[in-house]
Amino acid sequence: MASGDMPYDGRFAGDPLSVLAGVFGHPGFRGRQDEVVRHVAAGGSGLVLMPTGGGKSLCYQVPALCRPGVGVVVSPLIALMEDQVAALRQQGVAAAALHSDLPEGEARRVLHDLHDGTLKLLYVSPERLLLDGMLARLDELPVALFAVDEAHCVSQWGHHFRPEYRGLGVLSQRFPRTPRLALTATADPRTVEDIRLQLGLADAPVFRGGFDRPNIRIEAAPRESERAQLRAFLKEHAGVPGAGMVYCGSRARTEATAEWLRGDGHDALAFHAGMDAEAKKAAHRRFARGDAVVMCATIAFGMGIDRPDVRWVVHLDLPRSPESWYQEIGRAGRDGLPARALLLYGAGDMALARQRIEESPAGPEQKRIERQRLDAMIAIAEAATCRRALLLRCFGEEVPAEACGACDICLAPPRVFDGTVAAQKLLSAVYRTGQRFGAVHVVDVLRGKLTEKVAQFGHDRLPTFGVGKDRPDSFWRSVARQLVARGALDVAVDSHGELLLTDAARPILKGAEPVMLREEVGRPAGPKPRGATPAAAGDPLFERLREWRRAEAQAQGVPAYVIFQDRTLAEIAAARPRTLDQLGAISGVGASKLQRYGAAVLRLLSE
Ligand code: ADP
Ligand code: ZN
Fold first, then answer.
1. Concatenated DSSP letters for 530-599?
2. Do domains 216-411 and 542-606 have the same CATH topology?
3. CB of 55 closer than 6 angstroms to any ligand 1 atom
């Protein structure tokens, strides 16, 4: 692909709104994009905090096209760079990427275009940018701006620290008059301060976008029977175009889950950091190409996933913090169409995560923060009030008191009851059986079941034997989980999951502390949630457009969504434009795409 392929001719240069409309085909900015773009186009630097899918790319792409010179974008992943470049070229923007995987000849051509002044956006890996020769080249050229994407990679506090990012601090000294824009989806205050410090942005404004993603419906459920739950969830999405993701807590689980899903008739792939580079690349490509795949992955998969039509994200294990969870579920529904996130969790997860923190080599301060994050995550999982509100509060956002309408709690509020007596019964059963048994046995004792184990240990003679007969097993399991969640019980993780009392159990046993519990509701039953499918799915015209797009993408060797996103195709199918002008008025159809594909699309529509 030649970078000079339909070069951006500067027709729209200068004015952000005409660049947005002319090049990208969008009628208006979203959220704080407008503010950021104007600030940077006028020469300002800053830090942008927006959720995944919030529209960070346009924050630097538009000002780069408004200003003279090349926009230099630092990006940590080659796949991410390549997808962005492919998308920009489709829009007629002369863009290129420079990284270690590029064949020598191509790299030379990119540098040539850079010196020529024809290149408008250059994506570059941090190590490549910091080579002395590279910075010296840029000294000689007009640079429109520097954008540092995934800027949290600069901070050791985050989970994605990249030592090469540290060196980017040099940009503020070497190019003091060039705007620098750092962008991240991480909003954790310490990471944010660290980014500002490291990148010399301490005096620059921070643009914090709204973190709410109302199109993602969020749900959480205790993990009762993982595969049955996953199967039921997938069934609700049968026939819905787009991809799904299953996040797993371990490498082995990604492979086992993918294999099981394949046996169940799904096109499932596994991805984790332990796979060899080729296998990772192949999985990434299949996903990026726009196939209807289910990706079973560890958190190693995600950064740089631009695919807009991920329809759902399931977590099989408890994430370690609301921030990580939010970032992962944020990969769903970037196109703004309805999407879903489901979290499955168990008491063992909570205990295991707690233990991992205690055993980690981190210092006491770091451990305290990790503990707080985990507790916030557990609180969301065991929530009796709006999950979205709890989540957004972690990002410092106040949320209106009314129901969000898009979380399981708001859609079907659970009943809360005084569970003090139930909690006491369970805690005392744990105590009387010697804190040597897991939840299954403790529940058997409460329910008065004369199992072999109960007989063996003489637990049928305990005063607590059978005191919980009036409630089903699931009730007592839920009580146990909620007591683990509030820290009154611990689960011994390295042996057999024995329940152990903690100090927090004492006031409850003594009756000095009331315990409110949540009645288990189970996920709201029924078919697909309202609007969980893009409205156009099943519309034959929409399907024909998708088929045309698939062939086109294959012929050009680019991901399907860089040609047109589902959202744009759906709008085209609904509006049925008859002229190029009408087609060009649809969001996502810029001048270049109109020129490339306008005739083909109109022909298809008239057939
Ligand atoms: P981020 O990098 O913040 O995760 P992106 O820049 O990839 O998000 O944008 C997410 C999606 O939103 C993309 O599909 C993009 O085309 C779309 N988008 C962003 N800004 C606008 C806008 N102003 N109008 C219409 N669509 C937009
Ligand atoms: Zn809610």
1. TT-S-TTTT-HHHHHHHHHHHHHHHHHTS-GGGT--HHHHHHHHHH---SHHHHHTSTT--HHHHHHHHH
2. no
3. yes
Is residue 481 in contact with ligand 1, taking CB distance under 6 Å? no
* CA 497 to ligand 1 center in whole angstroms: 45
């390295």: which residue's tokens?
494
Is the minimum distance from the CB of 99 to ligand 1 under 6 angstroms?
A: no
- Ligand 1 geometric centre to CA of 292 (Å): 21
**Which residue owns the Cα nearest ligand 1 atom 18?**
55
Burial of residue 383, with CB atoms counted within 10 A of its CB: 0-12 exposed, 13-18 middle, 19 or more buried: buried
Instruction: Assess whether pLDDT exceeds 50 at residue 256.
Output: yes
SS (H, E, C) 162-174: CHHHHHHHHHHHH
Q: Cα-flanking dihedrals φ and ψ of residue 247, to 5°?
A: -85, 130
Q: How confident is the model at residue 536 (pLDDT cuts 50, 70, 90)?
A: low
* pLDDT, the chain, mean: 89
Separation of CA 405 and ligand 2 centre (Å): 6
Contact 225, 269 (CB under 8 A): no
pLDDT at 370: 84
Q: Please list, in sequence order, all residues whose beta carbon lies within 8 angstroms of the beta carbon of residue 574, skipping any fewer than 6 positions away.
A: 535, 536
User: What span, in angstroms and rounded, lies between the C-alpha atoms of 256 and 228?
Assistant: 15
325 to each of 31, 312, 318, 604, how far by Cα in Å?
23, 13, 9, 41
pLDDT of 73 strictly over 50: yes
Topology classification of domain 16-208 = Rossmann fold (3.40.50)
Place of tokens 């589902």: 566
Report CA(583)–ligand 1 centroid distance (Å): 20
CATH assignment of 416-518, among 1.20.1250.20, 1.10.150.80, 1.10.10.10, 2.40.30.30:
1.10.10.10
Q: What is the structure's pLDDT at 9? A: 54
Query: In testing the pocket of ligand 1, which one of 30, 121, 564 has its CB within 8 Å of the most ligand atoms?
Result: 30
Rounded Cα distance, 375 and 587, in Å:
42
> What whole-number distance in Å separates Cα of residue 141 and Cα of residue 116?
10
Q: Which ligand is nearest to the CA of 412?
A: 2
For 51, 271, 296, 308, 522, the CA distances from 334, given in Å and listed in that order, are 10, 21, 19, 5, 28
Q: Measured between alpha carbons, how far is residue 386 from residues 187, 349, 389, 413 in Å?
A: 21, 22, 5, 9
Task: Decide whether any atom of ligand 1 lies within 6 Å of the 215 Cβ.
Answer: no
Q: Whose CA is nearest to atom 9 of ligand 1?
A: 55
Homologous superfamily of 542-606 in CATH?
HRDC domain (1.10.150.80)
Which ranges of 382-438 does DSSP label H, i.e. alpha helix? 387-394, 408-411, 420-432
Q: Which fold has domain 216-411?
A: Rossmann fold (3.40.50)
Indicate the top mutation candidate among 213, 216, 306, 309 to test ligand 1's pocket, ranked by most ligand atoms within 8 A of CB: 306
The finding on whether 53 has its CB within 6 A of some atom of ligand 1 is yes
How far does the chain reach from its first CA to its final CA, in angstroms?
Answer: 31
Lowest-pLDDT range, 55-59, 87-91, 182-186, 367-371? 367-371
Can you state the percent helix, strand and coil of the chain, rounding each to 5?
Answer: 45, 15, 40
Element (H, E) at 284: helix 277-288
Could you tell me the two tokens for 129? Answer: 């940018």
Going from N- to C-terminal start, the domains of the chain cover 16-208, 216-411, 416-518, 542-606
Cα 242 from chain centre: 16
